[in-house]
Specification:
This protein is mainly alpha-helical. The chain has one domain (2-61). It has helices at residues 2-30, 36-55. α1 packs antiparallel against α2 (36-55). It is elongated, with a radius of gyration of 15 Å. The chain starts with a helix and ends in a 10-residue tail after the last helix. 0% of the residues are buried.
């Protein structure tokens, strides 16, 4: 139960991070305010951030202090 609750919370966090990124990055890209290189780097950074956040679920099965 504890692991599934933590996983659900992390999924919601990851979706929120992705939504915030898209709400900021997409309009900037449409307006031409970022170059394709910067957009690609930002998208990679966003993916890495979401992945690192999801890896926190591995700690749910370990006993805490």
């Amino acid at each position: 139960m504890r692991i599934s609750a933590k996983a659900k919370r992390l999924i919601v966090e990851d979706l929120a991070l992705s939504a915030v990124y898209n709400l900021i990055a997409v309009p900037l890209a449409v307006l031409g305010l970022v170059t394709p290189l910067i957009a690609a780097l930002a998208m990679s950074g966003s993916s890495i951030l979401v992945t690192l956040n999801a890896l926190r679920a591995r700690q749910a099965g370990r006993p805490g202090p």
